Amino acid sequence: MKSIAKYQYGKAIASNLSRSDFMDRFHKTLPVWVRAVLLVGLICLVAGAGLVAYRYYQRPTTLTVAVGSFDGEARQAAQLVAGHLATTNSPIRLKIENAGNVLDAAKAFASGKADLAVVRADVGDLSQARAVAVMAEGVVMIVAPPGSNITTIAKLRDHTVGVAGGEINRSVVEALKKEYDLTHSNVTFKDIAPTDLRRAIQAREVAAVIVVVPLTDKYLSLVKGLFREGATSAPVLIPIDSAGAITDTKGPYESFDIPKGTLRGSPPVPDDDVTTLRVPYLLVANRHLDQQVVAELTKRVMAARRDLASQEPLIVGIATPTLDADAYIAVHPGAAAFYNGTLQSFMDRWGNVIYLTPIVFGALASVFAAAWRFLGIRSRDAAQSTLEQLCTLRERIRDLEDEAELRKIEDDIDVMLRAHLAKPGSDEESGTEALALIALAQRLDNLVHHRRVVLSARAANGSG
User: Fold this and answer.
1) ∠ CA 206-209-214, rounded to 5°
2) 347: exposed, middle or buried (C-beta count within 10 Å: 0-12, 13-18, 19+)?
3) What is the H or E stretch that residue 236 is in?
4) Residues contacting 287, CB < 8 A, separation 6+
5) Which of 13, 45, 109, 256 fits as disulfide partner to 117, beta carbons 3.0 to 4.6 Å?
6) What is the Cβ-side half-sphere exposure of residue 342, based on CA atoms within 13 angstroms?
7) Considering just the CA atoms, what is the radius of gyration of the chain in Å?
8) 61 Cβ partners below 8 Å, 6+ apart?
9) Quick check: helix, strand or coil at residue 142?
10) Are the C-beta atoms of residues 287 and 247 closer than 8 Å to each other?
11) For 293, phi and psi rounded to 5 degrees?
12) Which residues contact 109 (CB under 8 A, 6 or more apart)?
């Protein structure tokens, strides 16, 4: 066992000496200026990588938005918002994809081709959609030509009703059929393209039409333009008296009263508020989209509404969606955080970074210390380790001829060991080097003892 311990001690000493010799040869082989160039190159490489990482982190997040409407208004409004985000250096950017109409926009969103979409709440597969903002409110208008005696839904019996947009308004038709039992009333619904509505009305192909539009001047003008009006005649708005019953079942619709005088002010048309249905046009995001991204998007969209309302009437309609947990289309958690004022604070978002920064700087300090040692600028005496200093004492002990010098050597060994123990953060603190120091100190002690014996024997022989 004793021989094994001696072997391990010797191996540890040899290992430390070999590392020291390697660094000596390395510093002699490469001049200081070469090592400095290598170090500067390494620093530049690390700094470049850090800059690339920073630029990558700071780059704007681009989201694809599918929009569509028969007149292009939705796309124009979306482009205004996208332009505002770009000019204000927003971290969120929008890429607008024209989908054709709201149904096509919903299909593009459902297929994963778009991160966001402007859709109508009752159109398409919106199972993955979460509301971000209300872009506009579509109002269901059942309109009959001037002079028509059809003033209620019950009077539509045995008549044909034109449905603007066809499949887009299929949900509205189904809701009316179910509530008023229109199938048994022999009411026929005919899909008609928006551009063919005026012709169909004038050709008496339909007795009334169903359109769903926001109550803005442009869309009200389109509705009035479908009919030939006179000074004493105006289109007839047919009320949906059972709108409340339709909205009792949780769905995309809500009851709404078209204000008196909406189509004409004097004389007012209608001459009283008309009950009907309303359905929101929503900006929706995929439910898997990052909450922080959606929160920032919501913040920027609402800021755009404030700044652009004077340029585009449709922008005025941007509003907060229903925040109820049981809403037909639930609000996205990121948008809800913005609306509820529960956005993560600076410490919530960056607390971990702040906590880890000292650790990172500590690691960098170690790297710089290693680099300083790599340069080898310090004098050899300053850089010499305790182990190396002890190793140099062996030859001195063998050549000593005086007992006083032996005692001085013992004192020097004690001083070096105490100095080493007083440096807990030194590089020689590892267990292997500690064993090597113990082994070397024992060996030096043996050498001192042996030399003392030799000197004593020599003195005895001389006196004899």
Assistant:
1) 165
2) exposed
3) strand 236-238
4) 128, 129, 130, 332
5) 109
6) 7
7) 43
8) 91, 92, 93, 293
9) strand
10) no
11) -65, -45
12) 66, 116, 117, 119, 124, 126, 128, 129, 284, 286
- The predicted-structure confidence for 179-191, as pLDDT tens digits, reads as follows 999 989 999 999 9
- Token pair in block for residue 188: 């026929």
| CB burial of residue 291 (10 Å; 0-12, 13-18, 19+) | middle
H helix intervals, 181-250: 197-202, 217-224, 243-248
Under DSSP, the state recorded for 153 is: G
The full 3-state SS of 282-320, as one line of letters, equals EEEEECCCCHHHHHHHHHHHHHHHHHHCCCCHHHHHCEC
- Whole-structure pTM value: 0.66
**152 with 276: CB under 8 angstroms?**
no
Residue 20's identity, in one-letter code, is S
In angstroms, the Cα distances linking 134 to 75, 137, 399 are: 15, 8, 96
**More confident site: 104 or 373:** 104
385 against 40, higher pLDDT: 40
Phi then psi for 65, rounded to 5 degrees? Answer: -120, 120
Q: What backbone phi and psi angles, to 5 degrees, belong to 106? A: -65, -40
Residues paired with residue 65 on neighbouring β-strands, in sequence order = 96, 116
- Judged by DSSP in three states, 120 sits in strand
Q: Which two tokens stand for residue 339?
A: 């609306």
Residue 151 CB contacts under 8 Å (≥ 6 apart), including other chains: 144, 236, 238
56 is written with which tokens?
């990558």
How far apart CA 288 and CA 61 sit, in angstroms, is 15
Do residues 413 and 363 lie in contact, with contact meaning Cβ atoms separated by under 8 Å? no
**Going by DSSP bridges, is the β-strand pair 274-286/116-120 parallel, antiparallel, or unpaired?**
antiparallel
Q: 164: exposed, middle or buried (C-beta count within 10 Å: 0-12, 13-18, 19+)?
A: buried
pLDDT digits (tens, 9 = 90+) for 359-406: 787 788 777 777 766 666 544 443 346 667 777 777 777 777 777 777
Report CA 17 to chain centroid distance, whole Å. Answer: 53
- Would you give the distance in Å from CA 59 to the centre of its chain? 11
Look up residue 338 and give its amino acid.
F
Per DSSP, the residues of 360-377 read HHHHHHHHHHHHHHHHT-
Contacts of 44 (CB under 8 A, 6+ apart): none
